[in-house]
Amino acid sequence: MAHDDAGAPSSGTPAPGTPAPGAGQPGTSAPGTPAADSPEPVLEVRDLVKHFPLTRGVLVKKQVGAVQAVDGVSFDLHRGETLGIVGESGCGKSTVAKLLVGLEHPTAGQIRYRGEDISTLSGRALKAVRRNIQMVFQDPYTSLNPRMTVGDIIGEPYEIHPEAAPKGERRRRVQELLEVVGLDPEYVNRYPHQFSGGQRQRIGIARGLALRPEIIVADEPVSALDVSVQSQVVNLLERLQDEFGLSYVFIAHDLSVVRHICDRVAVMYLGRLAELGTDEQIYEHPTHPYTQALLSAVPVPDPDARTHRDRILLAGDVPSPANPPSGCRFRTRCWKAQDRCAEISPPLEVPAEFRRTPGPVRHPSACHFAEERTVVPNG
Amino acid sequence: MTHQEAAPEPTGTAAAVAEPPLLDVRDLRVEFRTRDGVAKAVNGVSYHVARGQTLAVLGESGSGKSVTAQAVMGILDSPPGFLTGGEIVFQGRDLLTLRREERRRIRGAKMAMIFQDALSSLNPVLSVGAQLGEMFQVHEGVSRKEARARAVELMERVKIPAARERVGDYPHQFSGGMRQRIMIAMALALGPDLIIADEPTTALDVTVQAQVMDLLAELQRELTMGLILITHDLGVVADVADTIAVMYAGRIVETAPVHQLYKAPAHPYTRGLLDSIPRLDQKGRQLYAIKGMPPNLTAVPPGCPFHPRCPLVRDVCRTDPPPLYEVGPGRTSACHFWKETLDGAR
Amino acid sequence: MPEPSVPKEAIGHGDGGSAALALGEAESLERRPGAAPPGAGPPGGVPAGKPRSLWSDAWHDLCRNPVFVVSALVIVFLVIIAIWPQLIATGNPYRADLAKAQQGSQPGHPFGFDTQGRDVYTRVVYGARASITVGVCATTGAALLGSLLGGLAGFFGGWSDTLLSRIADIFFGIPVILGGLVFLSMVASTTVWPVVGFIVLLGWPQVSRIARGSVVTAKQNDYVQAARALGAGNGRMLLRHIAPNAVAPVIVVATIALGTFIALEATLSYLGAGLKPPTISWGIDISTASPYIRSAPHMLLWPAGALSITVLAFIMLGDAVRDALDPKLR
């Protein structure tokens, strides 16, 4: 199947016909579309913007600025694929997650689910769409209502969407879901505090699956878990994807987990995408300096790598999203920055010098001076 | 039984080192007495660290790694925590026999601690300069002006840009990475011989984490201090540690020099951990998952505490707690089947 | 037999270590060659422990707390005699025998007589009714009004929140005693209701602040976001997810307030602004007895003692409830 090719990480070289996306017309084609012959994406995000106004004043509120949490993000999500969004705290990745599931309304831009813009929907129409896009939360301790039984928690989606399952069948469905996520179906009457972190995360995943969604947005689903439990949940997510043909948007700060689970990866910095490509393109052939710095900073569990690793130590901290730098947002920490970077914001497109180069280096990267640099050892 | 013959005599502590260690923890035991029962948070832990050496204590939440450090520092919350046995020999003296006042003088001056959450470890109503300077005023009796100058010096030492201008700023005005640097500066202030860092970079972003870890390692080398790094992150450990002690359910299950541990772990738990973390440089394999979950410390399984989750479990594991076998120079493992584990390594 | 022992329903172990139900995590993805077969050692099934909600856990804790048991017994006793004072006091609280005025303890009249020769014991017993009625009704009213207004303000935020907070501030600003003297002196009724109404009016802002705060906290929990992401409406989120998780602090503050409201009623009655004769109230009796504190202290000490024990019982109950419901302990 065509979409399999598109999503499969193992297909080393992207299909030859990868379009060089026109930066001029956003809204027509997303950058980083893996293959020209891929089917219609299930989710298309175009120029998504979310600004949180900063106000001052007690009675009469006056807007004094805005936190530019998300500022022009575009990507596609295909059926059965996992798209990773990585970045440091404050880069806006969690806001993207909230926008995708409708917990926040975008300031501008579109989120198209099967061709229909869902960002402007409300009421009944929004509720209907929500069945298809579900979320898994980071913190297994606060994402389950402590006063409800596990059965009520997993069954709640059916109460909100009564058309999804007839009343008599709900209990059986809940027990099936528990079994699917590897928990004993007898646990329906227990309360969340009787479970460990890993088990609670399974309950949260079961709730996300209840309505048989097509897309699951997972916001740091394993980062609150112990190392030895993390891999159980990662494996579960992978198994469920195969079983139910799910598409994942997997948001995380742990680049190793993202590499493991994702087919394509978007690197986010201060509300914008810095680079977008398949896992091979991003991890082995990064062209954006931020991606390179991020990758080189990840501690690798191999003491032999200590000496011969290419480490890029960034200076300083991430600037405030309320007052981001002009032009390229990364320029204040970038060792390549020049005057041009402050004036012109680099678009997310395949850099001119790589347009004719075949191979994995040809992928969108928002940098005026993109060049390949391998920072992950023994790729 | 075969495994008995194969195994060398178990030894209580790790192999002796040539130079007397800076810190030698022997058979430490800490209990938490709660309503739900007695939790043996630390159950016979021994480790040692020499000057200029970095010991990483690796473990998951509830493994007892932080509690051990708190006991060493003498900052254990009591109740509910109670030290029920063991010795903490620091520079030749058993700290547990010292008077409260003597212990207090060692703390801060000779050994210092860095915590995970810098924001809550710093006093929000005092400027960082005042907090740093206070250490000198209290311990060395210097003047305010002198203390402030020393504070600036310290801030420069931990590479805080524009230290002179920022010495009067308050903790919330610094970013997370800068705050952690201030914590490091406070720990360094009185020139300690030992630093205990409890998850020092866990709360930080990965690019900032690298900066802070590099700084810590650099200072440790420069000042030839002993460093105990407490963490759950196998990547961070690989980057800086000399020796690793792996803890599970209040016990040390394996100690080894860092290269050997990653190359050939001698305990199934260590091996499971190494196999279960996704790698930045590899793709495609299914992750190994250690089954089950860490035990509740009020009800640790009998025998080897890891046996319900262990792929190599046999009858003996369910009844006999394994001693720490010496499996090589400077290496120990608390597994009856350490040989099989070692041989099965990659 | 060497299966891992199943932890009893252990709760509150900080992170990670909370009650382990030793099943389920076995993802049994044993890919390592030579590993023991997955079925060899996985923990077996768990005997079905009784599922306990946080409420029943709290109740369980309360029952083991001697402070709660003692104060609850005292309160149950007080409530019973408030409803049926005849059970332990057979006399008539209004019967005056001036010949015995101010006399001390004597057989059949253990607490002695007051200035009008009425039996102090009987009056102390009958006085419980007014105190308990005022305390319970005022607390119920203040709790309902306060949690409704505070809860809605916390949930919806924005201008309604601002408006409500200002109104609450205004009521906070009214001096209780002075306000009571002014407000209640305008009312002629001799029933308990004006006093109840006044206490509700002054008491709700305290509850509404607590309710608002705990709703704001509960609202930020991921499970509320999760419900919203599922498409849940405001009603469901408020009733199903927020209210049950926000009500505990309100219960605590209301229980403690009950004690202070009883004391407030007595204070107002003592000053002549609260309840008025012929209602029997400890406050009134203390007031009538106070000029004779040197000559006949028993007239004051018995009703004052009853008042103190009642107030103390409710405050201790509130403390015990707070300990049981405090999420930091679990």
UniProtKB/TrEMBL annotation, chain A:
<dbReference type="InterPro" id="IPR017871">
    <property type="entry name" value="ABC_transporter-like_CS"/>
</dbReference>
<dbReference type="Pfam" id="PF08352">
    <property type="entry name" value="oligo_HPY"/>
</dbReference>
<dbReference type="InterPro" id="IPR003439">
    <property type="entry name" value="ABC_transporter-like_ATP-bd"/>
</dbReference>
<dbReference type="InterPro" id="IPR003593">
    <property type="entry name" value="AAA+_ATPase"/>
</dbReference>
<keyword id="KW-0813">Transport</keyword>
<feature type="domain" description="ABC transporter">
    <location>
        <begin position="43"/>
        <end position="295"/>
    </location>
</feature>
<dbReference type="InterPro" id="IPR050319">
    <property type="entry name" value="ABC_transp_ATP-bind"/>
</dbReference>
<comment type="similarity">
    <text>Belongs to the ABC transporter superfamily.</text>
</comment>
<keyword id="KW-0067">ATP-binding</keyword>
<feature type="region of interest" description="Disordered">
    <location>
        <begin position="1"/>
        <end position="39"/>
    </location>
</feature>
<dbReference type="InterPro" id="IPR027417">
    <property type="entry name" value="P-loop_NTPase"/>
</dbReference>
<dbReference type="Pfam" id="PF00005">
    <property type="entry name" value="ABC_tran"/>
</dbReference>
<keyword id="KW-0547">Nucleotide-binding</keyword>
<dbReference type="GO" id="GO:0005524">
    <property type="term" value="F:ATP binding"/>
</dbReference>
<dbReference type="InterPro" id="IPR013563">
    <property type="entry name" value="Oligopep_ABC_C"/>
</dbReference>
From TrEMBL, chain B:
<keyword id="KW-0067">ATP-binding</keyword>
<keyword id="KW-0813">Transport</keyword>
<dbReference type="InterPro" id="IPR003439">
    <property type="entry name" value="ABC_transporter-like_ATP-bd"/>
</dbReference>
<feature type="domain" description="ABC transporter">
    <location>
        <begin position="25"/>
        <end position="274"/>
    </location>
</feature>
<dbReference type="InterPro" id="IPR027417">
    <property type="entry name" value="P-loop_NTPase"/>
</dbReference>
<dbReference type="InterPro" id="IPR003593">
    <property type="entry name" value="AAA+_ATPase"/>
</dbReference>
<keyword id="KW-0547">Nucleotide-binding</keyword>
<comment type="similarity">
    <text>Belongs to the ABC transporter superfamily.</text>
</comment>
<keyword id="KW-0472">Membrane</keyword>
<protein>
    <submittedName>
        <fullName>ABC transporter ATP-binding protein</fullName>
    </submittedName>
</protein>
<dbReference type="InterPro" id="IPR013563">
    <property type="entry name" value="Oligopep_ABC_C"/>
</dbReference>
<dbReference type="InterPro" id="IPR017871">
    <property type="entry name" value="ABC_transporter-like_CS"/>
</dbReference>
<dbReference type="Pfam" id="PF08352">
    <property type="entry name" value="oligo_HPY"/>
</dbReference>
<keyword id="KW-1003">Cell membrane</keyword>
<dbReference type="GO" id="GO:0005524">
    <property type="term" value="F:ATP binding"/>
</dbReference>
Automatic annotation (TrEMBL), chain C:
<dbReference type="InterPro" id="IPR050366">
    <property type="entry name" value="BP-dependent_transpt_permease"/>
</dbReference>
<keyword id="KW-0812">Transmembrane</keyword>
<dbReference type="Pfam" id="PF12911">
    <property type="entry name" value="OppC_N"/>
</dbReference>
<keyword id="KW-0472">Membrane</keyword>
<protein>
    <submittedName>
        <fullName>Peptide ABC transporter permease</fullName>
    </submittedName>
</protein>
<feature type="domain" description="ABC transmembrane type-1">
    <location>
        <begin position="128"/>
        <end position="318"/>
    </location>
</feature>
<feature type="transmembrane region" description="Helical">
    <location>
        <begin position="246"/>
        <end position="271"/>
    </location>
</feature>
<comment type="similarity">
    <text>Belongs to the binding-protein-dependent transport system permease family.</text>
</comment>
<feature type="region of interest" description="Disordered">
    <location>
        <begin position="23"/>
        <end position="49"/>
    </location>
</feature>
<feature type="compositionally biased region" description="Pro residues">
    <location>
        <begin position="35"/>
        <end position="45"/>
    </location>
</feature>
<feature type="transmembrane region" description="Helical">
    <location>
        <begin position="300"/>
        <end position="321"/>
    </location>
</feature>
<feature type="transmembrane region" description="Helical">
    <location>
        <begin position="132"/>
        <end position="156"/>
    </location>
</feature>
<feature type="transmembrane region" description="Helical">
    <location>
        <begin position="67"/>
        <end position="85"/>
    </location>
</feature>
<keyword id="KW-1133">Transmembrane helix</keyword>
<dbReference type="InterPro" id="IPR000515">
    <property type="entry name" value="MetI-like"/>
</dbReference>
